[in-house]
Amino acid sequence: MAIDSKVVAQVAHLARLKVDEGDSAALSDRLNDILAMVDQLQQADVADVAPMAHPLDVTQPLRDDEVSEPNVRDKAMDIAPAAEDGCFLVPRVIE
Asked: Is residue 55 part of a domain?
């Protein structure tokens, strides 16, 4: 699909962008170059390539899951204005 100045003007209108008519010719040329590059990428044979989340084979080092702070839930429940069955009671905010 070739992009001309008319298509650039329509897209600019939909995107609420101001594009000068003098710039629309250069913009349409650049957009056509981008589409040509995308077409070139789509022609690549990727049938034997496994999908991957990252181009490098890296792993995220994770720390050990250890408790670092004491449990203060019972103390917080004692001073809460309203609590029931280990949960804080709050006023309803969604009708």
From this structure: no
Q: Which residues form the domain of 12?
A: 5-42
Counting the structural domains of the chain, the total is 1
Q: What is the tens place of the pLDDT at every residue in 16-71? A: 999 988 888 899 999 999 999 999 999 999 999 888 888 888 888 899 988 888 98
Give the SS3 label for residue 39. Answer: helix
Residue the block writes with tokens 């034997």: 48
Question: What DSSP designation does 88 have?
Answer: E
Question: Distance between CA 82 and CA 76 in Å, rounded?
Answer: 11
Q: Torsion angle, CA of 49/55/57/63, rounded to 10 degrees? A: -130
Residue 31 belongs to some domain of the structure: yes
In a domain, 27, yes or no: yes
pLDDT category, 90, cuts 50, 70, 90? very high
22 part of a folded domain: yes
Give the pLDDT score at 21: 85
